[in-house]
Amino acid sequence: MLPLAQLRPTSGELREMLRLAWPIVLAQVGVMMMGVVDTAMVGRVSPDAIAAVALAHIYWTNLFLFGMGLLLVLDPIVSQAVGANNSVGVARGVQRGVIMAVVLSVLMSVAMWPVEPFFRSLHQPDGVVPITASVIHWLILGVLPSFLFVVFRQSLQAMGTARAIVVSIVVANVLNVVLNWVLIYGHWGAPALGPAGSAIATVISRWVTLAIILAGGWSHLRPTLRPWLPESFAPKPMLRMLAIGLPVAFQQWLEMAVFSMGGLVIGTFGAVQLAGHEIVLNLASITFMVPVGVGAAAAAMVGRAIGRDDVSAARRDAVAALAVGTAFMALAMLAFMLLPGLIASGFAADAGTVAMAASLLPIAGLFQVFDGIQCVSAGILRGTGDTRVPMLLHLGGFWGVGIPLGLALSLWAGMGPAGIWWGYVGSLIAVAFLQLSRVRWRLMQDIKRLHIEH
User: Which one, 20, 25, 127, 195, has the greatest CB density within 10 A?
Assistant: First the structure.
């Protein structure tokens, strides 16, 4: 066991963690807000319109989240190269990320085209399916900039700069609101396109986001993109990157699928129960963006420390990240547990929905700290290049504990929606314990930089 003094982060390391984490948090919230705004503004058109946009975003998210998880391989690759002052290694990592983004864009675009027969096979409403298909077909034009944005965002985070990320997200959100107002409702002489107008606004905003992050981060990105290195196309290093990135993609999908499945079960209890569940899930998703940002900052800082062969600094950075992430989620826990009625009433007018959300919020409060611990721990491990074992730990915690426990309590014990949320609590406690134990074990080792070239 290492002495506490060797694990305690310095004030400078804590400041660096906060400096890097808050823009990432803002960027994550901004990405979420675009979908929220689209749904809210289309909601004034018709019930079919809002249902279509909701279905389109579910379809997009399930495909895009997997691809984004794959691109998170850039966290250890680029950050460790930055720490080692290996400019060629940084360039190779970024360029291979661009190649992966292009390939992923082609695959995702192909998967988005036959969406109409897919939703018809799921017996979705006849009036909704054609609108959903139109929205998704427009969104195909925004796939490439979305994946390229992830590549450049992860690369800039690894380099320790985030200003261009924040500016691009803020501008994109403002632009998306304005273009939605123009294209959905037909202002300023434009035709009223309804949901399709929302999709077009989103596509334009995504291209603008890419342009801004490139322009704002060009001084850092230019040396990684020019000249283009022929070895960036080498298949063996690319396959090694895929071997590191695929577990991250599956890890994210495993977590998202558990919450999606819980929503499907709760939907069988009625519309009020589902509405209350959605409110609480959205609130928990917003607080979750903070440990997501802290975890991304941890991946960058731990990776840079390992790249410069300073495992002691990597340990202190890990402790700093866990302290920041856990402290915020403790505050979220107190808010959810002490003010459930007040919080729920701000998101619904129907008394039944407010009551359902208020009954679930304290349960969600219980897992806030554990959710923060597991998310930050996953970021720390990603910075070390450790992705396969964390994915298996997620599988065991979420699917080995959360799903069986939630179904047992909800259906067999008669607890209804609350049973599903207690299942979430059980799974997150299990995953937090497992991931934190893995962090402790991993950082006690003599960690070496990832080498994927040979």
Answer: 195
**What's the number of domains the chain is made of?**
2
Please check whether residue 118 lies inside any domain of the structure. Answer: yes
424 domain residue, yes or no: yes
Verify that 219 and 249 share a domain, yes or no. no
CA dist 5 → 314, 318, 389, 419, 430 (Å): 14, 14, 29, 43, 29
Judge whether 149 and 213 are in contact, CB under 8 Å: yes
Domain boundary among 212, 233, 254: 233
Predicted structure pTM score: 0.86
Of 191, 212, 233, at which residue does a domain stop?
A: 233
Q: Looking at the structure, do residues 324 and 430 belong to the same domain, yes or no?
A: yes
Indicate whether 334 belongs to any domain. Answer: yes
Is 210 found in the same domain as 347? no
Q: 184 is in which domain, residue-wise?
A: 7-233
Do 186 and 266 sit in the same domain of this protein?
no
Is residue 127 assigned to a domain? yes
